[in-house]
């Protein structure tokens, strides 16, 4: 009879306003009644998870592995279940999603963009160093801890994440992610049904590098390099790595180093795409602030 105890745990919190919604969850502000501390509580209705119970277990396992280890990754503070729901309590990010911030500002200055992208890649390196692939990096899953301009960005939503042991490292074959951010190797698998000459390949941490390259482009100019639609034509563009630094009016003030950085991340062949560590060594992220626009 564990249920009454679990119910008691749920009673330690009172939920408030809704912060966001995902496919299977609603995230609400929650106050811990004893301490008065505020959290973000992801509430997952068990009814929606029938047959998908492993997904939440997987998310919790990853969060346990990564929590408290890096300032740019969300922290899971508490986890419990009631008869109907599963609750995941995180540190509260009051600054909203990167998506909203891009839309509010339309784009970031180049030095600000570089600083932000460097921070995100620092978190990705930590995640990959811990044998986890996020698999759904996009601006909706990157949150700011406060509304301040210099707020700390945090990687959230490990719902599609995967823990990999050494053998598995490059052998994932599931199709997952969000159109527009999905790496070519993932579509290549799907497209290979209709184009049997294309190899079916596995994928791993490199897919996070691709998605973050897309995010870097988005932060710089306020729109994505690949269409978010899911038509075969759009997918083919991702598979072939066809994108442009256009319209020119958005790109003419952006340095060649920044463009080179995007190209560095958006390498179609995931076998030679750089790792997070290599990306962090790129000139765009290592140059001192202030000299981005005046490339030699
Ligand atoms: P899903 O897996 O369903 O997409 P997420 O974990 O991405 O769920 O959460 C959905 C949304 O809830 C996020 O995009 C964000 O707007 C909000 N959210 C999630 N975690 C937090 C948090 N720790 N603080 C504030 N808002 C959050
Ligand atoms: Mg999400």
Automatic annotation (TrEMBL):
It comes from the Eukaryota. Residues 13-285 form the Protein kinase domain. Keywords: ATP-binding, Kinase, Nucleotide-binding, Serine/threonine-protein kinase, Transferase. GO terms for molecular function: ATP binding; protein serine/threonine kinase activity. ATP binds at residue 42. Belongs to the protein kinase superfamily. This is Kinase-like domain-containing protein. It comes from Pterulicium gracile. The chain holds residues 1 to 296 of 384 of the full protein.
């Amino acid at each position: 009879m564990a249920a009454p105890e679990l119910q008691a745990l749920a009673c330690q919190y009172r939920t408030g306003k809704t912060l966001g919604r995902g496919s299977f969850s609603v995230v609400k502000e929650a106050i811990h009644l004893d301490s008065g501390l505020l959290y973000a509580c992801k509430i997952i209705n068990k009814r929606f998870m029938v047959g998908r119970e492993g997904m939440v277990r997987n998310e919790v396992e990853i969060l346990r592995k990564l929590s408290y280890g890096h300032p740019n990754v969300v922290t899971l503070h508490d986890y419990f279940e009631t008869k109907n729901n599963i609750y995941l309590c995180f540190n509260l990010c009051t600054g909203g999603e990167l998506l909203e911030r891009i839309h509010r500002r339309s784009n970031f200055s180049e030095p600000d963009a570089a600083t932000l992208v460097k921070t995100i890649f620092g978190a990705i390196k930590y995640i990959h160093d811990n044998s986890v692939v996020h698999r759904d990096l996009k601006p909706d899953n990157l949150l700011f801890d406060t509304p301040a301009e210099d707020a700390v960005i945090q990687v959230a939503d490990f719902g599609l994440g995967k823990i990999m042991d050494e053998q598995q490292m490059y052998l994932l074959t599931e199709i997952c992610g969000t159109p527009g951010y999905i790496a070519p190797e993932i579509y290549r698998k799907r497209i290979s049904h209709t184009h049997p000459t294309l190899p079916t390949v596995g994928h791993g941490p490199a897919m996070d590098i691709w998605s973050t390259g897309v995010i870097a482009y988005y932060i710089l100019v306020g729109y994505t390099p690949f269409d978010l639609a899911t038509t075969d034509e759009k997918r083919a563009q991702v598979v072939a790595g066809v994108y442009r630094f256009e319209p020119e009016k958005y790109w003419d003030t952006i340095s060649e180093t920044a463009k080179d950085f995007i190209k560095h991340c958006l390498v179609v062949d995931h076998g030679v795409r750089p790792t997070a560590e290599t990306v962090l060594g790129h000139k765009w992220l290592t140059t001192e602030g202030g000299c981005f626009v005046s490339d030699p």
